[in-house]
Amino acid sequence: MNSSLFITVFLLLCWVSLCVCRDTVCIGSERETLLKFKHHLKDPSNRLSSWNATANSNCCQWDGVVCNIITSHIAELHLNTPFPTFDEDLVPNPLRTFDEDLVPNAYNYVYEELYEEYSRQAFGGEINACLVDLKHLNYLDISGNDFGSSPIPSFIATITSLTHLNLSHAGFTGNIPPHFENLSNLLYLDLSSNEFLGEGMPIPSFVGRMNTLIHLDLSNSGFMGIPLQIGNLSNLAYLGLSFPHLKFLDLSSNILQGIIPNVLENVTSLITLDLSSNQLKGPIPTSLGNVSSLIALDLSYNQLEGPIPNSLGNLTSAITLDLSHNQLEGPIPTSLGNMTSLIALDMSHNQLSELPRSLEKLSSLRVLVLSSNRFSGNPFESLITLSKLSHLDIGDNCFQGVVKEGHLENLTNLSEFHASGNNLTLKVGPNWHPTFQLTYLDMSSWQLGPNFPLWIQSQNKNLQYLAMSNTGILDFIPSWFWETFSPITLLNLSHNYIHGELGTTLMNPISINVVDLSANNLCGKLPSLSTSVVSLDLSSNSFSKSMHDFLCRSQDNQMWLEFLNLASNNLLGEIPDCWGIWSYLVDINLQSNNFVGKFPQSMGSLTKLQSLCIRNNLLSGTFPTILKKINKLIVLDFGENNFSGTIPTWVGERLLDMKFLILRSNKFWGHIPDKICDMRLIQVLDLALNNLTGNIPTCFNSLKFSIFSVVLWLKGREDEYKSFLGLVTSIDLSNNKLVGEIPSELMDLYELRFLNLSYNQLSGHIPGSIGNMRSLLSIDFSRNKLSGEIPPTISNLSFLSMLDLSYNQLKGKIPEGVQLQTFDASNFIANNLCGPPLPISCSSNVKVHNFDHNDKGSDRLGVNWFFTIIILVN
Ligand SMILES: *[C@@H]1O[C@H](CO)[C@@H](O)[C@H](O)[C@H]1NC(C)=O
Ligand SMILES: *[C@@H]1O[C@H](CO)[C@@H](O)[C@H](O)[C@H]1NC(C)=O
Ligand SMILES: *[C@@H]1O[C@H](CO)[C@@H](O)[C@H](O)[C@H]1NC(C)=O
Ligand SMILES: *[C@@H]1O[C@H](CO)[C@@H](O)[C@H](O)[C@H]1NC(C)=O
Ligand SMILES: *[C@@H]1O[C@H](CO)[C@@H](O)[C@H](O)[C@H]1NC(C)=O
Ligand SMILES: *[C@@H]1O[C@H](CO)[C@@H](O)[C@H](O)[C@H]1NC(C)=O
Ligand SMILES: *[C@@H]1O[C@H](CO)[C@@H](O)[C@H](O)[C@H]1NC(C)=O
Ligand SMILES: *[C@@H]1O[C@H](CO)[C@@H](O)[C@H](O)[C@H]1NC(C)=O
Ligand SMILES: *[C@@H]1O[C@H](CO)[C@@H](O)[C@H](O)[C@H]1NC(C)=O
Ligand SMILES: *[C@@H]1O[C@H](CO)[C@@H](O)[C@H](O)[C@H]1NC(C)=O
């Protein structure tokens, strides 16, 4: 080998080894650019500490910087701040459950902490224009930061080298710079989750001209469009023309309206199409079936209607299909059985009616959600072969029939089985051993009883959630049950006929969060409770004896309980004074028991309490001063007890969140304090059947009694309150000793629906402005001393379905109106009224018979208006 060749080879080898073994060294001017850029950026947790001016610092090695290995130019900037992933382990043990709705407090604390941590990490400040000096930058990701509602800096549109631009979730507002279309090399554009111009901006037209794009994400940005449009491309029909290479399009969670056009011409490359959570109407276009490249199609949460087109069956590459939460109807087309690549299929929350047999061909399916439709028949006839299914939801349909062992034997991978709300019967042998191991089982409303189902014992590996409510079980809970399922987090066996005592069984499941054994025949003492329970419902059973042991037993342990419902049992004695360790309680219901004595002082430590219902017991004493401390109360129901004394003025001053104040049927006396009007959110005020005196406060018009969109925490009791939360607004002051006039200010409560002032001693006229209370459904002013005529405006109350003015001193003609004449005459008797519906003409040919000669009640005409019956002569 001659030496020059040797040297050449040697040099070549050195060069190669330098290139390969030594890292690229960044270009000085680009390093300066980055330092300048950093200088303007807010970096609260100093994440860019490696970006420093230390001599020889190689900017290609700085965090988030990637250089081109050949040219050494800076090619990529990864400056995103990922939101920390929710880690179950952060939830205070033992409140870990997969249903966060059930333990809102615990989860909120974790979210708050996560958010704080995230805020400390996120970049902010200014995105300096010096970035344009990075002439070779092709990847820029500044997503997940907080640039304080500034507009997207327009200079970004001049970095034409960009192929990948991610501005997602970065706190941008305002307009998208129009010259973005100059980014003629852009393949990936993600502008999602910003708030461009608040709400309601159409997708800007230049987006339609960015025809190099492969990936376009404009989700969750408040874009509007009528009909669905991208700029001046009148609609998706031309998607294929504008974006010949587009593979990924996400327009979800915007306000896009109108119809999805039925011409989707030449869309040949689209793999993912997400139009979910918009306001799209009309049918699913048949032409969607031609987009044969689709792998993921999501049209959920719109208002799409009509049948599912047969053509969708042609999407044989599709892996996920989500049509849930629309108004689709008719059968699932047989052709969908051709979509044999499907792994996840969601058709829930529509009005679909028929399940085709062909679904049995979807042998790859792992997730199938059919809940809340109108499917009938036995679903397992079609599902029998789907051996890969792990998540099956058939809940809330009209499925009916008998399910046997054979129907379930090939569902060997089933792990979540949601099947409540149907009319199905399970008929299996006593030794049935299912081939699946479930984590989640909800067979509520199946016929499973009368014996406790023994096969459940086989589900002992992973079961976390077990609901068998309303299943006809008439039995004890077997003792193996509590040992077998000690890792369970939710247990719902409500609405059965389960009997026996619970004793210490509820101490066994070490991490149980939710226990619902309501509406059974359980008896004896209340059970001991594991500290992990967050929600306990033992209402409508036959528990008796004192609550003392239950409440006071474990005074050393902090209890996590948030919801406690012991209503409708036979509990006795005083409510024990041991509430100190129960400070997470949000909702307590002790109604309809036999509790006596005073309100316990230690309840003052329940500062998170929002609802307290102790109605229908035998409690006494004055209005508990300790409630001053519980100022988050929204519902307070003391009705049907023996409380006495006055209603303290601080009720209005302290309990400002109150929506339901129910003191009905006690022995409260004295005036209704004016301060009660400070409870601006009140919706139901029920002070009936007490001994209240004085006038009705005139300040009532400062109450809104209006319909709030109530964000409700009353988990598990929604049904009980749903009908009237945000709906019923009522005042009931009946059966007291109130005097004076009906304040005309009361008539300003436009949203009030029920007004009952009966059985008092109110006098004066009915205010003429009563016609303003247009929401009124029911008025009862009977058994007072009201006089004068019925104001004619009352016939404006077009929703009125009940009006009782009987036993007053009203006179004159009953005003005419569609409504009033349809009420029963008994609602007007014992006054001095005439005209329909009373069979008394208002003409002068009236002969008056006084049946009651007590003249205390006579007016100046000498007619007794208390108990008068007037007989028509004509
Ligand atoms: C400067 O950055 C280098 C890495 O690039 C790092 O090792 C060094 O600790 C940093 N110096 C300071 C003062 O942050
Ligand atoms: C943009 O960033 C977000 C959040 O950091 C990420 O979820 C998304 O996948 C990114 N988009 C692209 C196109 O890379
Ligand atoms: C966009 O590109 C056009 C032509 O390529 C050019 O004339 C125009 O100045 C560019 N706009 C911006 C803001 O860079
Ligand atoms: C859409 O806009 C482009 C440029 O702004 C224009 O050339 C084109 O004619 C428009 N198309 C329609 C259908 O208005
Ligand atoms: C769609 O593609 C076909 C075949 O490539 C072509 O003939 C037709 O003109 C295209 N349609 C439009 C509207 O460009
Ligand atoms: C499915 O596609 C085939 C050919 O690609 C076509 O003949 C057929 O009509 C399509 N089916 C439906 C229901 O659109
Ligand atoms: C698709 O489904 C239809 C209707 O069930 C059927 O006629 C057709 O043969 C199927 N096509 C394929 C390719 O399986
Ligand atoms: C269950 O699977 C076995 C084995 O794959 C098969 O022979 C049998 O026919 C299947 N049963 C049903 C009901 O599909
Ligand atoms: C439930 O199904 C049975 C037959 O399996 C039927 O007799 C019964 O009426 C159904 N109940 C309801 C509420 O539909
Ligand atoms: C109502 O109050 C009066 C005095 O104001 C008292 O005599 C009467 O006993 C009270 N009635 C009840 C039921 O408390």
Give a verbal description of the structure.
With 874 residues, the chain is mainly beta. Among the domains are: 263-271 and 279-436, Leucine-rich repeat, LRR (right-handed beta-alpha superhelix); 521-870, Ribonuclease Inhibitor (Leucine-rich repeat, LRR (right-handed beta-alpha superhelix), Alpha-Beta Horseshoe). The protein is 9% helix and 23% strand. It is built from 10 helices and 57 strands. A hairpin with a 6-residue loop joins strand 2 and strand 3 (74-78). The longest helix is centred in the first third of the chain and has 19 residues, at 3-21. The protein is globular, with a radius of gyration of 36 Å. The model is unreliable at 16-21, 92-100, 706-727 and 845-874 (pLDDT under 50). The structure holds 2-acetamido-2-deoxy-beta-D-glucopyranose (10 copies). The site of one 2-acetamido-2-deoxy-beta-D-glucopyranose (NAG) has 3 residues, from loops.
